[in-house]
Amino acid sequence: MSTQTRAATRRGDVGAGILAVILGITSFHRSAEAQPPPEAPPAPPGETPTSAAPAGDASAAPAPAAEAQAGAPAPESAPGPGAASTAPPAEKEPWKKPISVAAWARVGGRLQNPGAREKMDRLLGDGELDLMVSGEINRFIGLQGAIVAQFGPTPTGGNITGSATIRDVIAKFQFHDLLNVWIGRMIVPSDRSAFSGPWSMGPWNYPGFFEPYAPPIGPRQGPFGRNDGVTTWGKAAGGLFKYYVGAFNLHDSSVSPLYTARLNLSLLDPEPAYYQKATYLGEKSILALGVAGEVQKEGSVESLPPPAAGEPAGIPRKDTYGEVNADLLFEKNVGAAGTITLEGAFYKYFGDFERFDYSYFALASYLTPSNVGVGKLQPLVRLQQAKPKNADAYTLIDAQMGYIIEGHAARVALGYQRSDLSGAKGNALFLGVQLQK
Fold first, then answer.
1. pLDDT at residue number 66
2. Where residue 90 falls among pLDDT bands split at 50, 70, 90?
3. Is the pTM of this model over 0.70?
4. 3-class SS at 101?
5. Any idea which of 81-95, 137-151, 243-257 has the lowest mean pLDDT?
6. Which of 76, 104, 242, 321 is 20 to 30 A from 159, comparing alpha carbons?
7. CATH number assigned to the domain with residue range 94-302+318-436, chosen from the 4 options 3.90.550.10, 3.40.630.30, 2.40.160.10, 3.30.160.20
8. Nearest CA to 376 among 320, 333, 342?
């Protein structure tokens, strides 16, 4: 056989091989297209604009096309040639949709003197802008990220430039309703208020902020209620029961991890997603009980006074930190009578060097059934107390009138706060506007 003939034969063999591969891929592609679409993942976490799912919402995603078809009766006969199909088009899988982008803003003012808190002779303003993205890579993997920017007064006075930082960076893995794993920077699953944040609760002020420019008194979390770690969570009965187990402080190798756990039972409407609200503004009937706890080895650290000039700093003693809490939310839309919301939470702290023994809050609010102008009125009152180990109790009382224009996506709050920090009195008037898109 000549060299040219052998070369032609080899080219023919290669061409036949390539044709076989192409035919195999085409056959596999057609086979894959013939399979029913996979189950869609749950809706993106609750922190999405109200037009999709309001802030902190735990609503589930729309039913995927495969589930809708499985639950629908079979047609009696196929339509004839040329007949128009009346079946709705199959919903596009969430992971094939563009990434979701949202922007949230809160701006407010406060009439109070930070240096003499009983006087209302200073007008202070602050604000926050959150930019968020989320999406699904496939039915098992999702992502979420957010950047937050703030401006307002600081302990040393303040500046007009403000600050910006990363709020969320989460890789999400869904193996089953009972097994989801989130890794990155996220909300610490500590109590309902943490899941809701200030965005999805009735009061304008987040609970636990007794002392100016200090972290809130409550479960340990981190800036904006976030921390770096991993959470395993799951749900049963569509979200009537949920569990969370997490490990945090993973950004700091010099300290032990902070371990957290939470159980949530919703006896009326379910709350299926990771996040939960502190009020659903009458969209759900809620009777939910949550219990949670935290523990950190050597997490309770002695606070030492600054050393004298020329003296070395002392070595603080350490003890195991622990915290347990329970929260209860009842919300009922009674039709023409409006919506009633009752909420309470109790926190107990452990550790030789913890400043506080316990804290709690209780809240009652009412939402009018119909609009007054362009929105509904929501009068609200909240009592908070925290008991230091070696001092009289801290007390905060908020009386607020909310104006709910478009759910959590557009609301206004006007209120008065009275504070008593172991005898140090304070008064403040506040006004806030919240917008989400």
1. 35
2. low
3. yes
4. strand
5. 81-95
6. 104
7. 2.40.160.10
8. 333
**How far is Cα 424 from Cα 346, in angstroms, rounded to an integer?**
23
pLDDT at 91 over 80: no
Amino acid in the structure at residue 312: P
Whether residue 95 contacts residue 136, with contact meaning beta carbons closer than 8 Å, is answered with yes
Query: Sign of the CA dihedral 424, 425, 427, 432?
Result: positive
CA dihedral 37→38→39→43, nearest 10 degrees, is -90
Token reading at 25: 């891929």
pLDDT tens digits along 344-354:
999 999 999 99
CA dist 408 and 385 (Å) reads: 27
Domain ranges of the chain: 94-302+318-436
In contact, 311 and 329? CB cutoff 8 Å: no
Amino acid letter, 437 = K
- Strand pairing class (286-301; 100-111): unpaired
Query: Comparing C-alpha atoms, which of 218, 217, 276 is closest to residue 242?
Result: 276
Count the alpha carbons within 13 Å of 430 in the hemisphere toward its beta carbon: 24
Using CA atoms, how far apart are residues 359 and 390, in angstroms rounded to an integer?
14
Contacts of 37 (CB under 8 A, 6+ apart): 64, 65, 66, 90, 93
